[in-house]
Structures are given as structure tokens and as C-alpha cells.
Amino acid sequence: MDCSGCHLKLLDDVVYRNSDFFATWRFVIGGFFPLYLILVLFVPNALALFLVLILFALAARDSIVVTGGPSWKVPTGRRDGVISVASESLAEIPAPFDNITTLIQNFANKSLDIKDLVLLSGSHTIGISLYTSFSNRPYNLTGVGDQDPTLDSEYAANLKSR
């Protein structure tokens, strides 16, 4: 599903707490949780670090050119969009608990079909899933403390024991 470059926007402004990096389902996208931890633990102003790295790349290139060496392009600026708002991610990115009807409709809203749904969903589900994306199933499926009846009872017990 095209989320208007949300994968890149997730890195955009970890300093500003209303960006889509901080949307509810942010850590479902693989690899961003460790990045977030590194940024908040070791970089007081992560956005400034990214800017410094870009400036360093530009300065390195320019110093080589000035001394008679070759030149090359250094990509700068955003190319996926200029707005990053958490509420937009919540509205555009399917939730981990969406049913097939909701998923089909979400994809149709973006002019995508069921084949696109299968291909994109498969490419985003290989690997691990965070427990928060399905923790309601063994404990509180409908809000009254019940377990999902479609969840294997042995598997549910295993999850609860961890």
C-alpha cells in the first residue's frame, strides 16, 4: 500500500513528537524500533545528526573537487513528501488486526486490488511480529477478558507464560 513515503518519513523527524514515527503502529514496520532506541539513547538531537551527516558528505565531495578530483551527486532533500503527521499514518496504514474486508477496502481506496494486497502483505509479514500487534487475542479479544476462540489454546497458553 502506498503510504506516501511513510517508510522514509518515519526517519524524518524523530525530534518532533507528532510525526508518523510516533503513530500507534510505528514499530510494526521492521527495523525501526532498534533505530528509534539508538536515536533516543545516543543522539540528543537526531535530526541535527542527519543534517550534519549530509553536510559532511557535501563537504567531502566539494573538498575532493577543489583539489582536482572527481565530482558526484550527493542526494539531498526529501523526495517522498513534505508533511509527516502521525494521524495520517493511522488513517492510511492498515492496523495489524484489520479483517480482510477492511484490508480489501483500504487497498481499493488506493486503486490497488487483491493481488496487490497479497503481494504487499506478504512482503511486510516475513520475519517477526511485535506482541503488541496481537496481544488482545489471548487476553482480551472483545474487551471483557475473553480469549479469541480461533486462537489455538496451547499456543495461547504459551504466549501467556512468557
Describe the structure.
It is a single chain. The protein is mainly α. It has a domain of 86 residues. 50% of the residues lie in helices and 0% in strands. It has 8 helices and no strands. This is peroxidase. One of its GO terms (molecular function) is peroxidase activity. Its cofactor is Ca(2+); heme b. It catalyses: 2 a phenolic donor + H2O2 = 2 a phenolic radical donor + 2 H2O. It is an enzyme of class 1 (oxidoreductase).
Summarize the structure in short:
This is peroxidase. The chain has helices at residues 6-12, 32-42, 46-66, 86-92, 100-109, 114-125, 136-139, 153-161.
Helix percent reads: 40-55%
Roughly what fraction of the amino acids lie in strands?
under 5%
Structural class, please? mainly alpha
Question: Assembly type of the shown chains?
Answer: single chain
> Any low-confidence stretches, pLDDT <50, length ≥5?
5-16, 25-30
Largest sheet entry: none
What average pLDDT do the residues reach?
A: 71
The number of helical elements comes to 8
Radius of gyration: 21 Å
How would you describe the shape? Answer: elongated
Strand and helix order: HHHHHHHH
Q: Count the E strands.
A: 0
